[in-house]
Design brief:
The protein has 101 residues and is mainly alpha-helical. Helix content is 56%, strand content 0%. It is built from four helices and no strands. 0% of the residues are buried.
Length: 101
Amino acid sequence: MAKSANIYARIEPEVKAEAEKILEILGIPASNAITMFYKQIILNRGLPFEVKIPSPSVPNLAELTEEELEQEILKGYEDYLQGRTKPATDVLQELKKDYEL
C-alpha cells in the first residue's frame, strides 16, 4: 500500500452526514472522495469548480420598478399559457423526493 498522510478538518455534522449518505449510495469511501477532490485540484491547478456568488434567479420584487414588475408578471402569464408551469403540489413532491436520501 502507498504511503498516506492524514487530513484533519472541522465540518458541520449535518453536512458530513448528508455527504456520507450520498457517498455510501455511490459506494465511495469518504477518504477516496477526498483523494479524488485533491487530484482534481492538481489537474485543474485550482478548485475543480467555479467559486462565485451566483446571480439570483428570482428577482427581488421589492427592488423592481413598476414596468419591470409588469414584465415579470407577463413572463409568468406567458409561461402559464404555454404550459411551462407545474402545480405547486407536484413541485413540493419532487423537492421532498430529491432531499429524502
